[in-house]
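Hi R.,

Here's the input for the adenosine-5'-triphosphate complex you asked about:
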Amino acid sequence: MRCEDRKNNDILLEVRNLKVHIKLDEGILKAVDGVSFPIKRGKTMGLVGESGCGKSLTSKAIISINPDICQTTGEVLFYDSEKNEIINLLELEKDSAEIRDIRGKKISMIFQEPMTAFSPLHTIGNQIMENILIHKMKNKKEAKEVAINMLKRVGIADAEKRINQYPHEFSGGMRQRAMIAMALSCNPDLLIADEPTTALDVTIQAQVLELMNQLQKEYEMAILFITHNLGVIAEICDEVAVMYLGEIVERASVKELFRNPRHPYTKGLIKSIPKMGRKKERLYSIEGNVPLPLDLPPACHFYERCEYRMDGICNKQKVPEIQLSEDHMVKCFLYNNYDNIKQDNYIKQETEAADV
Amino acid sequence: MLKYIVRRILYIIPTTIFISIVIFLLIQLPPGDFLSVYTAKAVQEGETIDKQALERMRQDYGLDKPWYVQYFKWISGIITRGDFGYSFTYKRPVISVIKQYLGITIMVSLVTMLFTYIVAIPIGIFSAVKQYSIGDYIFTIIGFFGMGTPNFLFAIVLMYLSFKYFGNPMIGLISSEYVESAWTWAKILDLLKHMIIPVIVIGTANTCGLIRVMRGQLLDELNKQYVITARAKGLPERRILFKYPVRAAINPIISTIGWSLTSIFTGSTITAIVLNLPTQGPVMHKALLNQDMYLAGTWLLLMTVLTLLGTLISDLLLAWLDPRIRYEKKGK
Amino acid sequence: MSKSDIILEIKNLTKEFNVKTKLFGYGKTPTIKAVSDISFFVKRGETFGLVGESGCGKTTLGRCIVRGIDATSGQVMYYMEDGTKIDFLKAKEEEYKDLRKRIQMIFQDPYSSLDPRMTVYDIISEPLKACYKLSKPEIDDRVKEIGKATGLDISYLKRYPHAFSGGQRQRIGIARALITLPDIIVCDEPVSALDVSIQAQIINILKDLQAEYKMTYIFIAHDLSVVEYISDRVAVMYLGRIVELAPTEKMYSYPKHPYTEALLSAVPNPDPERKMRRIILQGEVPIPSNPPAGCHFHPRCPYRGKECDSVIPELYELEDGHYVACHYANKLRLSGIGQVQ
Ligand SMILES: Nc1ncnc2c1ncn2[C@@H]1O[C@H](COP(=O)(O)OP(=O)(O)OP(=O)(O)O)[C@@H](O)[C@H]1O
Ligand SMILES: Nc1ncnc2c1ncn2[C@@H]1O[C@H](COP(=O)(O)OP(=O)(O)OP(=O)(O)O)[C@@H](O)[C@H]1O
Ligand SMILES: [Mg+2]
Ligand SMILES: [Mg+2]
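And here is the predicted structure with adenosine-5'-triphosphate in place:
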């Protein structure tokens, strides 16, 4: 596929109607069900959602590294700047040379669990150099130099010595930084970060986030940042997609999302985090629990927990995606026509008045 | 690390002494001694025996003294003169009996072990990577069959088949025409031919177990996060498989080599008797029946030292293979 | 403040772990001082927050207080309503049984703290059966009442824990702790393992229950915003010691210890338009088996002075009710939250 108009466009990767279905004995688990979003060059896209909503499967589907039981359909369009063409990554064979050339080189990934993401039997250096050796250069000595420099860049002191150590000799924060060093060693265009700070302490989390911010500026790469922490999203993302049970229910720029959340779920999420330095009123909480995404009907999955649910509409029909403005999409019947947006603004003012 | 090894070797000495005492006591336990068994047998068979010679021996080995005197005599003989005592069943010094059988035993054991690992590990890997494929099922069924069949039965079946199709049941390890001859290519070939059945018989039971272990270990490892990390780096599947999960899955298996060596040594006695193998199993069996105490004692002592060494080798292998353990052992 | 306000007083509590190595292991066994000479008091009916990074000894302190593990030394004084006090750690049979009812704990991990072979009913009623002699209908009533209060469906009680989600499990844990109607509950990170939407439900339940049953909470967490929301007073721990203790608002607006300041600034703020100055601490959290000399925090402290690496600072009352352990506490001007920079 070749699109001339894409070249001056700043979209690096576009996920279209991505579905990951898993066949289980109990039925089909629609873990990711029709997800679409673009990632802009050099920008950070955040993906938030509760545990089990399909964030990891979405991110791993992009570079086709989900296990075989996952049936993946849809399109992942990646603009390859070297070849100047657009490739649908899902069309490539799972273990083909083409996709392997993209993994680790143009799109690299860091994972949630810094403790288990490295093999305990090989040195950190070996595992970082491996990435460099497959994609960048053949000379081991040079690769080692690159690896040492990368480790220094991510703030690991004594990198020359550290490179020969094993993962268990590193603390959690250091492993995560080594992971980042590995992911960035080939200057990828896109970094997928699957909850890179969830397992870390706040002060170490701050270190890692700061580092990612710096490196992003330096290398001009795009980041897909996955987390369930809205605070982290607010800190580092440019755009956000909110996921609920395998679907993206709202997508907007960060400022817009935090200022004007539209979807009842997003609103609930934002309201339910205790905010520091504010007056302590009763915390808002979303009723009920996240259901298991087994055999869900093609209606709104949030229906049961929603305050604004409309019987006969929300639980019966397929929910449309509504583009409220150029950078704000919401998937909710409340905004089926423009009047409701005004009404929503009214609701918002009303609740704020009640808060004060 | 070196300090660790030396220390471990030093631990072997007191352990061996302790175990040798226990062994000696146990062999002493049944009433009578080998001389009385020997005399009774000889009388039964109508042989004449040299009463004087017997009496001399009784004194030499202090058989009329308490057990600790006998033990001390035996041990000091071993330490000062390398004399392990005299075997009555074979009518020659223990050391010469052992020399005759030890080499062949070790050879059968090693070949068997090699066979086990060479067959089991690739099949285990295949079964794990192609989990629930037809091949996996076939190997699983064969595996359970192999584990379920008693070894001696399997040996008899193979002997029968060999006799039926090749006209030779392949009993023993060396054909009668070669027993006295020097080592020639023909003799070696003959030996190898004879080793096929014992190796398969003794090997399969372990092989089948090992396939299951390897498969299980590898399945565990294949789902680990670091495999996904490696995949995300763009490594080809085959390289990922052998560099990471296989290496991790093989570790615990390799590290048990030391122990399995002794178990193959001792575990195959019945098979060896059925197949009439000139290995240590039958010899030991005979020695125990006849209260041939020095022969039995020496064999057991040898086993002990081998077990201890095997354990040490296992531990060292494990430490060498797994950096996490290596680190601990270094004591920081 | 009068003594009758106090319900619990912890005095010089220390807990050391001797990490056992193998039989033929080497060298000296390192001693981990997980909790090191900690003293503070808790007022009746308040929520006392305890924050700090992973491994700083929060859980250990909590478990020493409920006598889940034996402290190495120190006292946990419990003040009865009539003013008499008992050292819980040295309490004998009868007293111990009585106090056991009054002090309960909710555990950190809702997934592993419930016995998978017991039904929810058995789990919740177990402490009741252990502490009181009650008839079956009485127990039934109590379980149902508490079940309702914690938002558990009565029809769920005969099921086993694996059939529940994390949030529901945490409610079961809360119900178990509440069933004896204790005066004090040590809540060890009750919401850390939960999703945001469920977290808010649990926090609300805890607050409602406190209002209804007039309980005192010792609330352990590493999430500073949760602690701020729920606590009246907060203590910050670093490597087994309390480095600062103050009423919540004071602590969050005017921290006196550099570590507290760094912690506060490191919390990601869910408001993209109110960015704070971020203090990035250099270095790692040190290991408690080999803590730095002097002030444990000094290697990471941006304000360290010359005595910091040799003299251990004592916790002292800098202002009314504001305790801090730092040599420079009265000289530094540190920024808390809400100060946009
Ligand atoms: N290999 C698998 N087999 C069966 N179900 C799976 C598998 N992997 C994921 N799932 C299911 O798919 C759903 C989405 O999983 P995913 O890992 O993407 O969640 P997530 O949003 O990343 O959650 P978390 O925040 O906990 O990491 C979950 O319900 C999960 O149970
Ligand atoms: N049973 C034990 N044996 C040895 N060391 C222990 C034991 N329990 C805890 N420790 C050590 O004591 C220190 C404090 O542990 P503790 O569990 O109290 O920390 P924490 O503040 O609750 O951390 P987290 O936030 O991770 O729960 C840690 O370094 C830990 O390794
Ligand atoms: Mg995930
Ligand atoms: Mg804890």
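One thing worth noting: Strands of chain B lie at 86-87, 92-93.

Cheers,
M.
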